[in-house]
Amino acid sequence: MLLSQSKIVFITGASSGIGEACAIRFAREGYSLILNARRKDRLDKLAAKLKNDFGTHVLNLVFDVRKKESVFSAILALKDEWKNIDILVNNAGLALGLSDLHGGDTEDWEQMIDTNVKGLLYVSKAVVPGMIQRKKGHIINVGSIAAKETYLKGNVYCATKHAVDSLTKAMRMELLTHNIRVSLVNPGATNTEFSQVRFKGDKERADSIYDGFTPLIGDDIARCILFCAELPDHVNINDMLIMPTAQATAGLIFKENV
Ligand code: NDP
Ligand code: 8X3
Fold first, then answer.
1. Which CATH number fits domain 3-253: 3.40.50.620, 3.30.450.40, 3.20.20.70, 3.40.50.720?
2. Is the pTM of this model over 0.90?
């Protein structure tokens, strides 16, 4: 399909986990993709695979969503054929550490707030004016069960995801008269690189999070995000919460033999 005939989806945090799975799902459905993350090698490999497997048009934008100037210069410099973004998936995000607030690491807090909240704001501010001009678009923010519940030692991460919940509601109200859909997709425990990042490379601790039950995988969430995107234009999923069958709340997971 020609680039000019396909819909364009912009996915942040596409170098692993949920974002990568979204890239594959959308590519399979014939979308053209703008992919963002900091790890260029990962994005290059993914783009080559998508071009090869599905003939997808892919543009990689390597930047750190925390860096305001990089975000705006990359998005404002998009060539005409890539400018008309139909769907923005604000997915880039992370948790760092799991500790009481009084024992927390302030640098971890800053990175979580700068990525999960400010990064989402910068990217949205750069993309939304084009959607307003075209009077169409869809913003899909990736929240979390941590946007709905606060769990012990999750203080700052939970606060950032509660902020994403609140910002999603604000965007939906503000964009109502511009025919722009705004959705929030909230995953429960999903086996990606999330826990390895949270525990700073401690693979054993990260893996133990998913012991004894079947967690979600990135593709489970990608299917839900694609479902939101593919509904008719007059239908908006405001809020979706997806949990593994073995997880009832953030802290209540039924684990067998653990
Ligand atoms: P991964 O660690 O597998 O993926 C995170 C992605 O975000 C990577 O592509 C990473 O790319 C990118 N990223 C992180 N920081 C930045 C940054 N500063 N600038 C640009 N990209 C960045 O985890 P998940 O796929 O699980 O996480 C995706 C989203 O899902 C996050 O918002 C997370 O909070 C949320 N979530 C995850 C859950 C889970 O259990 N896994 C549950 C609920 C929500 P790179 O490092 O290359 O920049
Ligand atoms: C990720 C889910 O519960 O591990 O947002 O923080 S949780």
1. 3.40.50.720
2. yes
